[in-house]
From TrEMBL:
Protein's UniProt name: SEC-C domain-containing protein
InterPro entries hit by this protein: TPR-like_helical_dom_sf
Length: 337
């Protein structure tokens, strides 16, 4: 959610200008308003305009937000940074009670607690989150692994002995420097040393840690296949009948999506996913490209744009997970058969 460019190298005015640009874009593209306003709030935070960021979070919470728990978590972290500790703590408690099934809200509130030396509380949040989202899995999805790494870091600061989850975090950690070294509370002392060997060792550790973060940031967004929910496809064909040749029926469309994804997987294409289309969003995109909506070459470009905005859902789902088609059945007994 945070811009990649650190505040030290980008003037605050630039972040403010970018935030205002994103706010204008949100007014033009209401279907993408949540994502755009979250990015705008992040720029306001980096620029130090935390009151403006809070105003955007409040605006999002007044709407039917897709990710209200995430918005509340971001608001809590932001409030804490400019003196509203009591309100931030109340929101953190609410996020914990909501028990979200996505890792991001847990990570945000746990790291906010950790940043303010609430290590026991941060450890409790990380532990609750790993119990819920990792469970007994020996190979949890990549997106939940930061919970294990964060829990390991906080336990290292607390001086706690390794437990089974710490060992799992060690095994999943991909950087050449072990987690115990990266999370050593005494590491920072070496930065004040006059010993060149100690300084060199610390620089090597920091480079390894930075390499891990850069690898995560550079991970490509999914190669996405466009999925039209049934009601949206009905509206699309009513508005643009020429696309009937592309979409003869909803059943045929769903079969084509699954078939395309399997062919891509068989060819070795990584990072596959689906993106759900809506008619207003598609028409707005066509207008922005100055292309008629009936132009079929626009459809994959629209899917790529949605994926780049973070709207893709990874494919394939777990066999017992919900099918991507939205039918409400498990993938293993739906399109995963």
């Amino acid at each position: 959610m945070r811009p990649d460019t650190p505040a030290e190298t980008t003037p605050h005015a630039s972040h403010t200008a970018e935030a205002e640009r994103l706010e204008r874009a949100a007014a033009l593209y209401p279907e993408d308003a949540e994502q755009l306003l979250l990015q705008a709030a992040a720029h306001h935070e980096v620029a130090g305009a935390r009151d403006r960021a809070t105003a955007l979070y409040d605006r999002l919470l007044a709407l039917p937000a897709e990710q209200p728990v995430l918005v509340r978590a971001l608001k809590a972290a932001n409030l804490w940074e400019y003196g509203h500790e009591a309100e931030a703590r109340a929101i953190v408690d609410g996020v914990r009670l909501a028990a979200p099934r996505a890792p991001e809200p847990w990570i945000i509130v746990a790291e906010a607690l950790e940043a303010h030396d609430e290590l026991e509380s941060a450890h409790s949040v990380f532990t609750d989150a790993t119990e819920l989202l990792v469970g007994d899995s020996a190979n949890p999805p990549r997106e939940v692994r930061p919970l294990l790494f964060g829990r390991h870091r906080v336990r290292r600061l607390l001086g706690a002995d390794h437990d089974a989850r710490d060992e799992l975090a060690d095994r999943l950690h991909e950087a050449p420097v072990p987690l115990d070294e990266l999370h050593d509370p005494n590491r920072l002392w070496s930065l004040g040393s006059d010993n060149p060997a100690e300084l060199r060792a610390e620089i090597d550790r920091l480079r390894a840690e930075l390499g891990t973060y850069r690898a995560a940031l550079s991970r490509p967004f999914p190669v996405a296949v466009l999925h039209w929910p049934e009601d949206e496809l009905t509206q699309l064909l009513a508005a643009h009948p020429a696309l009937t040749t592309e979409y003869p029926s909803h059943e045929a469309h769903l079969a084509a999506v699954e078939s395309s994804l399997r062919e891509l997987a068989a060819s070795g294409t990584p990072h596959l996913g689906t993106v759900s289309a809506t008619l207003p969003s598609y028409e707005a995109f066509a207008a922005s490209e100055a292309t008629p909506p009936t132009e079929t070459s626009l459809l994959p470009l629209y899917a790529t744009t949605l994926a780049a905005r973070g709207r893709a859902k990874a494919w394939p789902p777990a066999k017992e997970g919900a099918c991507w088609c939205g039918a409400g059945r498990a993938y293993g007994v739906c399109h995963g058969v």
